[in-house]
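Subject: for your reference before the review

Hello V.,

The reviewers asked for a structural picture of the protein, and I figured it would be easier to keep everything in one thread rather than splitting it across files. Below is the amino acid sequence we used in the manuscript, unchanged from the supplementary table.
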Amino acid sequence: MVELIISEKPSSAQKIAEALADTKLIKKKNKNTSYYELTHGKIKIIVTSAVGHLYGLVEAKKQAWYYPIFDIKWQASYLTSPKLAYVKDYIDTIALLAKKSEQITVACDFDVEGEVIGLNVVRFACQRKDANRMKFSTLTKPDLVEAYEQKNRHLDWGQANAGETRHKLDWFYGINLSRALTASVKAAGSFKVMSAGRVQGPALKLLVERERQIRDFKPEPFWEILLQGEFKNQLLEGAHHRGRITNKKDADQIMSKVKGQKLAVVANVKASIRSQAPPTPFDLTSLQSEAYAQFKFTPKQTLDIAQSLYLAGLTSYPRTSSQKLDPKLGFEKILKQLSRQSAYGQLCGELLKLKELKPNNGPKTDPAHPAIYPTGLVPGNLRLQDKKIYDLIVKRFLATFAKPAVRETMEISLDVNQELFTAKGTRTIEENWHRFYKPYVRLEELTLPEMKQGDQVRIKKLEQVDKETQPPSRYNQSSIIKELEKRNLGTKATRADILDRLFKRGYIEGVQIKVTQFGEETTAILEKYAPTILDQQLTAEFEEDMDKIREGKEKPDKVLERAQKSLIKLLENFQKKEAQIGKELLGSVRATQDEQNYIGACHLCKKGKLMIRFGKFGRFVACDSYPACKTIFKIPSGLVKRTDKLCPHDNYPIVEVAVKGAAVKGKRLRSYCLKADCATKVSAVEAKEAKKVEQHKIKKNCPKCAKELVVRKSFYGEFLACPGFPSCRYTENFDKNTGHFEKPQIKTEGKVAAEKR
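And here is what came back from the structure prediction:
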């Protein structure tokens, strides 16, 4: 008998094959894919893989561009996108091997997405109705062998049905809403591809609501009276026991009463000791949150890194909601394996001496996978960012087994002329789990001097501070993921992608997430004409329906029928107001484009605005007061952002420039003056590059100061410049191919400028 095992990715196929092979493993090729032949027991096994989703949803019948559309089918993804042409080789290989096999076993990731990948491969590539199913949480040999030997005889149809239903829901909402928005802009006489989604809309509205709270916030004044004192050469700080005083008259009266006092008397000392429990094991959301707090990794970065660690067999499956670790995982074995790494040897040794290894499990569970944990395998050469996440996961795992820390909180009441001030301090008495989680423990340590009632504290300073209440803080990438989870918007696997999509589509920006003008105005228009698109409750209800489908308590057809009815009603209302919606959306798009293209005020005419324009020769910056003002500048390709700064050398505007993709990849933007020959563009690196391109033994002196000109290089190309800068600013254009010189000029003739507009 021949059994075909299909994994989700090529790397996991190799791991599975290596784990199951009793003897030598044979690797074979078909087209541009690999597969493995092996023997396990008396069974001949072939292991191959998909490469993520091989099939996607499309219209069942390709017709004119319209909406709504609900007649859809699964289709091989290489038929819909030329970029996915490589998928055909994987499908062909699976189909070929399936014909040789009596049994099919799906070994994709054990979650909803993995089940859909496996389901589609089984029914379309293998032409089967069902298959065996392996379930594992790590790609280690023991887990994979156990998963194979205890495989289920059927697909997990609950997960498969829930996953397929989610895909169809997302397609219904994503395609139909995006087409409706795009059609409305077209009806207004323009064209721009717009996008919306089932979870994207509610997530954006959540961010917009916070933006409005911040904008509408009205600060209220309050006062604090602060004390700085000294006791036995140790400083301590305190505040009036009332904290925020909202009445200035009261604050003034208190201040007048204590002003000039030299001593404070200890009225009371209150110390309390509490036990601080170890942290719970990581689920995906808490790992993403901690990685953001420690390393400023985005949720998507963290998920990608955690996935790569899982595929390397170093950690367990990351897409989990569980905060629980089961003793069946073999804690002692994992700790012994981790102890082989010098960084963890001593800590693991201490834990192995405990009578019982019991993690501090959290409340959240996941039916498919445990919390994230290290497998114990020794990593090879990891990238720096991979090392950080790996170390974080290991330290968290170790800390969950350690004893609770012991913390002491001390509160001292100080009497200053019958006005009470309070000084507070907290210190760690017993580190316990803190030692296992270093350097990731983030706790304030403030030790107060040992004091008793009646002690006198010398007052060094008393001050009345005017303050205002602050608006709610903006979400960051960590806090918004938590909020989406709290509201049941999206899934553990999709929330990071949803957020990433909002950034890429220009709806939000910044580390402290700010909704752009485009994002706010689009949300306002949808609230006005199609509020259902932004309905958090509806989206959350659909997520609950997915859980019911997985548990067999709800039928997919009923959920899809309900979604269709909701969409039809929404889109009918949308079509009635299509032109007006499009007009308002178009206004929002143009206003946003103007905002993005604005560089700053024109420094020459003092009236116009410098704007990024597009011509047949590419982009450039020009004054919008043309033809009255003919100011024009070249700009390099790639991202260009305004800075609202002027060059200190020549008062020309400074922009930030990055190569294509730099902003997405997180690279630092470089500042450049718009003036073509500004010397600030010549860095030490560029000077070295200039020497390399100096192929024409140039012997030419500066006509102003007689110094020998040198070759410089900027992103506009090579040029000749006087080495006497900044006292001499002479430059010439230089063509390294001909050796010709030309004094640089910026063409501003009306004809040229007009053509570029």
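For the response letter, the relevant points are probably these. Residues 660-667, 684-690, 692-697, 737-757 have pLDDT under 50 and may be disordered. The first helix runs from residue 10 to 20.

Happy to draft the paragraph if you're swamped.

O.
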